[in-house]
Amino acid sequence: MPNPIYALILAGGSGERFWPLSRRARPKQLLRLVSDKTLLEETLGRLEGLVAPDNTLILTNTEQESAVRKLLDGFPKENIIAEPAKRDTAAAVALGTGWVVARDHAATMVVLPADHVIANRSAFQETLALAAEAAEETGELVTIGTKPTWACPGYGYIEHGKPVRLQKRPDNDSIHRVLRFREKPNRDLAESFLRKGNFRWNAGMFVWSVPTVLREFNRHAPELADFISQLRAPKNFENALRDRFGKLPRISFDYAIMEKADRVLVVEASFDWDDIGSWRALANYFEKDQQGNAANCAITAIDSSNNIVFEEDGTTIALLGVHDLIVVRTKDALLVCHRHEAEKIKNLIGKLPPELQ
Q1: Strand, helix or coil for residue 44
Q2: 181-209 pLDDT, tens per residue?
Q3: What is the DSSP letter of 33?
Q4: CB within 8 Å of 170: residues ≥ 6 apart
Q5: How far apart are CA 234 and CA 329, in angstroms?
Q6: Rounded to 5 degrees, what are φ and ψ at 161?
Q7: How far is CA 199 from CA 156, 178, 189, 257, 260, in A?
Q8: DSSP letters along 45-101, please?
Q9: Fewer CB within 10 Å: C terminus or N terminus of the chain?
Q10: DSSP 279-295
Q11: CATH 3.90.550.10 placement within the chain
Q12: CATH, range 5-268
């Protein structure tokens, strides 16, 4: 019998890249960007039939907790936890691990971001099931890699080596040993990765058995391992969360564990994946006119091209003689910027009135 699967969903983003639609209290995962559901709801929906809600933990933060609870009214209330301080993903994964260990110390655990777009649920579940089998059979950390479609300098990359065959699936060739993780490259280096062919985008999704990840925490991050042991102590979870979490090191899980571990596998995703990190990326999901203007609403455009328009309430936007702009209108704010400056939108946040941040 396979081990039961638990899921940790990381839902505590800062809400900067999609301003003015996103705010600190309403980050990307709480927005309805590509459907009538929020990205967090889409993430939960993809797990239906694979991971039970009772086995799913959603980690958010104090700024967003009330919005998450309101959105997920039917979800188990005790399975939504707000981190008391911002401590990056290593502390978040340690917290989730402690939560799982307290329930089943031999479980298989999946870690997922809450803000990605994945259309094919069946392919997603097949990939996770394969990763879970690999984690259980090999006792190694497993990550999910997606095949690059272009030389994106904004993603981390995974360089993989030889394929690893499972006893249960000897003909499957989508599991490889990880040679190393590569941080966000410049465009030329990213293009060289694509030419080599053995690089995958790092999707930030992980699968492992609980004993395996505990071993790696003990080996590479003893302070976090001690925190996990405090969480798993009987009736001590709330106390450890309140007293210890804010003192943990601020470091990503990739840096703390994945890049130091010497036994890591990557399973190639059989599904399309997009982390839609900017308005430019989101425009791929909008209808386009013959001049390349992409919009989620009705627009009237004359002598205007390659603009991106988002209107929260469906008001018609008129464009005249403008090119390569991003125009986003909400109930209380209007953004107009050049589309090639989209990555700098976060620089605006600190200059805005607090009620608009």
Answers
A1: helix
A2: 998 888 899 999 999 999 999 999 999 99
A3: S
A4: none
A5: 50
A6: -110, -130
A7: 10, 10, 11, 20, 19
A8: HHTTTTS-GGGEEEEEETTTHHHHHHHTTTS-GGGEEEESS--HHHHHHHHHHHHHH
A9: N
A10: HHHHGGGSEE-TT--EE
A11: 5-268
A12: 3.90.550.10
